[in-house]
Amino acid sequence: MKYETVIGLEVHIQLNTKTKLFCSCPVGFGERPNTQVCPVCLGFPGVLPVLNDNAVRLAIKAALALNCSINPVSTFARKHYFYPDLPKGYQITQYDQPLAIQGFLVIKGSKIRIRRLHLEEDAGKLIHTPTSTLIDFNRCGIPLIEVVTEPDLTSPEETVAFLQELRNILRYLDVSSGDMEKGHLRCEPNISLRVNGTEGIRREIKNLNSLKNVFEALTYEITTQRALLEAKEEIVAKTLLWDEVEKKTRPMRTKEEAEDYRYLPEPDLPPLVIKSEEIEEIKKTIPELPAERKQRFVSDYHLSEREAEILIKDKEIANYYEQLVKFIPDYKLAASWVINEVAHFLNEEKISITQFKISPPRLSELLSFLHEGKITQRQAKDVFFKMVKEGKEAGGIIAEEGLAIISDISELEAIVREVLKEFPSVVESYKKGKKTVLMFLLGQVMKRSKGRFLPERIRDKILEHLG
Amino acid sequence: MKEITELSISELQEAVKKGELTYSDIFEFTAKRIIEEEKEVRGYISLFLEEAREQAKKADKERNNTLPLAGIPLAIKDNIAVKDKPLTCGSKILSNFISPYDATVVKRLKSAGCLVLGKTNLDEFAMGSSNETSYFGPVRNPIDKERVPGGSSGGSAAVVKYGGAIAALGSDTGGSIRQPAAFCGVCGLKPTYGRVSRFGLVAFASSLDTIGPIARTVEDCALILQIIAGYDERDATSVPLPTERYLPLTGKIRDLTIGVAKEFFTSALSPKIKTVIEEAITELGKVSKGVKVISLPHLPYSAACYHLIAMAEASSNLARYDGVRYGYRTQVHTEEFKKIAQYEDPLQVFYEKTRGEGFGRETKRRIIIGTFGLSKGYYEEYYGLGVKVRGLIKGDFLSAFQEVDVILGPTTPTVAFKLGEKKDPLAMYLSDIFTSIANLAGLPAISVPCKRKVDNLPVGLQIIGKPCAEKEILEVAFAYERL
Predict the structure, then answer these.
(1) Do B233 and A50 touch (CB under 8 A)?
(2) Which of A384, B134, B320, B332 is the most exposed place for a label (fewest CB within 10 A)?
(3) pLDDT in tens, B338-385
């Protein structure tokens, strides 16, 4: 039997706005419960929603970057259900006329179609204690976009790659932080197995708060569904919860979902009309996106695909790199330093590049020494650590410690002459063809110069003398 | 000198300026009337007399007060938010709720200097035409206490009628300002949808709800409307157009053509009311450009259409009353609750009991019907159909207003009926048959008392205008009042 994995995604993304979608409460994270609330987001009697223009702008920006077409008129709708974290008894969302439709993203050459992108408000949060359930309404009314893909994804790997690319785009656009751990990006995949071309039963997985969980849950579910199919057992459509500890999925609801949300066109909000000029204006604010940037890094800086990929992953790191190469034209060297030394340091310190103290010009000074062969790679690393620890400049550290590989050719010249003079027999044997003695001479020069010359330089110099 | 109830607000202000009256006199007069009448009429759910008395005294001290409503005692329907005051909506489920904010209209009235005397009784969540569905008991018509004052703004109309407030705010979703105004013999104006901000009006049917004044004279309606009307950024459905100047009213309607829709004059209309209305139209015909008979072919479907839409929206709007954050909550510690919650989802039981105990019979009926009308598989047949018919009704008016400037007709098919007379909900729903069309089409409409009564009970003449043509209907009403 031939099994094909079919995955579609529903992704909820929190927009980077200062205030909520329908009221002026601030959007925060980790604030004291129920401090970022007002009568509007608490659903008090008599209040009305007023749409946050900035949320609309961010949603359009995201939609354009995902190659969607923007509906000139979209509408809001009420989605009804009773739950204590939903103050109005309905969520304001978009239903039959979403903000944007028919987009796509290209992931490693395959086109993943995006069915729709719409605006909606977030619900509050329930906090369960052993004796009670508490409600925090701070998150209530925070603007979200929901992105729904077609079932075009074919593997857990591809799904993760799609989510990474999506998150990267959102970060490049400043539309969302995309932090899965903070719940700023939540993804609910649905997965089925197509058997010999026949569509299978879809199951939805919830509670995935990291890419690792997405990968593991999908992999687990493929194995499970396959086992069921091979045992000729029926797959039941249900919503599953991923158990991070047990590393398995379990059904979420016992009742079968014949849920009826009784969608009602939202009478409190007029249709959202987007003029084409507005779209054009927002288009202008869209920066170069990760995919384009990667291509440019490969072609302009002659980097490998892999190097470019790593650099563009973080917009700020890519910016740092581009600043750096303005001062040091050795693109490869700069890339290798940013990818290795700088990134490792940031990782260890758990800081972002924007908090990194060594500015591109300062790092470029160090790299120039390296590029010109004045110091060795090992020395450069030492200098780098002194720079981050002591806040000194590369030039200063190198001068102080006498590290600089003496560029003064005359000094090297003098030492080489001295050594050759001291070991005439060795010189003789070299001239007779015993090339290996070169290493001995090289070692002697290095010893006397305390390692301040590059070995290649010394080698060249000796060879120059030996003819 | 005239009685306080015979003076308009501007005349009262004039009298205070001349020193013939004080604001305290006006207040004490209304307070006295309240004490005399409230035991039977029960127009108020809450009263803030001491606070208002102090405010009246303060207004007297600031003699050069030029605010249009300085020292004028007003009543506010209890589904409109007044900061730090109860906001019960005539329901048990909100019987303990205090509003933390002012509705936009209340903010504007307060800035104009008014005193808020109290919150008036209403049908629960404004759902009713007789004021009998209030958790706080029915309101009685001050003209004949065996009769209903109409609804849902029955309390507002009743207290204005007996002198328990100079004017009041009501809300009108299908006739809830105009019908009680007609039953109580006062003026009530329902503005164009969006002309007056709904922010702070507890929603019943959001696409139909409006706030408007109930007063003894057309001029007072115009004055209150002037203050509360206008764009509000807190209401996304509010009309972003500047407000016309409604005052002074001239009563000159020579260049207006009066339309009479034949569909109003059917067998549903009491023959005696028919005669009174026809007389009024004839009289107005003489001072206007003329009378023209027009047709609103979809009027017969308006009541059905109205109830489909209003109930669906109500079922949605009333979902927030769940006992979680505020309002009435079922006792979860009772033996009964614990017993049921053993076998069923306790959260589900909590909702069912809270809402089951908190809402009255009529409200529950409408929530259930509305929920049904929005359900999967029924949406197109019910709510969806209502929306379609609504479009046709709007179209009817659009073509009618090509020929005429205002449309005249009766406000109600009957005069005020007796308490308990209409037990069949369907019969009750028909009280709206002439009023709900204006809500469906979003048009302004006013009800003014006719010159002649029927069986000693007042009759309302309804004047419907073009969108945002409040000035025109006020002029026609004013012209009629002065005939």
Answers:
(1) yes
(2) B332
(3) 888 788 888 889 999 999 999 999 999 999 999 999 998 898 899 999
Residue type, A118: H
Both A72 and A209 in one domain: the answer is yes
Annotate A255-315 with DSSP letters as a single string: S--------EE-TTS--EE--HHHHHHHHHT----HHHHHHHHHHHH---HHHHHHHHHSH
Q: CB A104: neighbour CB atoms within 10 A? A: 16
Contacts of B376 in chain A (CB under 8 A): 260, 262
Whether B325 sits inside 8 A of A263 (CB atoms) is no
CATH of the domain at A454: 1.10.10.410
Q: Shortest CA distance to A68 belongs to which of A106, A8, A116? A: A116
Say how many C-beta atoms besides its own lie within 10 A of residue B420's C-beta.
11
For residue B4, the tally of other CB atoms under 10 A from its CB is: 18
How many C-beta atoms surround the C-beta of residue A136 within 10 A? 18
Residues forming a β-bridge with A119: A145
If asked whether residues A24 and A144 sit together in one domain, one would say: yes
Q: Which fold has domain B4-253+411-482?
A: Amidase signature (AS) enzymes (3.90.1300)
Dihedral-angle region of residue B290 (phi above 0 means left; psi in -120 to 50 means alpha; beta otherwise): left
Asked whether the beta carbons of B395 and B248 are under 8 A apart, the reply is: no
Q: Does B312 touch chain A (CB under 8 A)?
A: yes
pTM of the model: 0.89
DSSP B334: S
The average confidence (pLDDT) of chain A is: 87
Residue A19, chain B, CB below 8 Å: the answer is no
Q: Work out how many domains chain A is built from and give that number.
A: 3
Same-domain check for residues A240 and A92: yes
What residues does each domain of chain B span? Answer: 4-253+411-482
DSSP B145: T
Average pLDDT over residues A414-440: 86
Q: By CB neighbour count within 10 A (0-12 exposed, 13-18 middle, 19+ buried), where does B95 fall? A: middle
DSSP secondary structure code for residue B283 in this structure: H
Tell me, what's the ipTM? 0.95
DSSP, collapsed to helix, strand or coil, labels residue B53 as helix
Sign of CA dihedral B256, B259, B260, B264: negative
- Within 8 A by CB and 6+ apart from A239, the residues are A203, A204, A205, A206, A251, A252, A253, A257
The answer on A316 and A378 residing in a single domain is: yes
User: Best residue in B105, B354, B374, B378 to probe A by mutation, most A CBs within 10 Å?
Assistant: B374
Q: Is the peptide bond before A151 cis (omega within 30 degrees of 0)?
A: no
> What band does B260 get if pLDDT is binned at 50, 70 and 90?
very high
Structure tokens at A200: 């299978």
Largest CA distance in chain A: 103
- Using the beta-carbon criterion (under 8 Å), do B81 and A45 form an inter-chain contact? yes
Q: Can you give the residue range of the structural domain that contains A432?
A: 409-466
Instruction: Report how far residue B374's alpha carbon sits from residue A262's, in angstroms, rounded to the nearest whole number.
Output: 5
Q: CA–CA separation, B315 vs B371, rounded Å? A: 6
Residues 6 or more apart whose Cβ sits within 8 Å of residue A211: A160, A163, A164, A180
- Cβ contacts (< 8 Å) between A264 and chain B: which residues? 312-313, 316, 374, 383
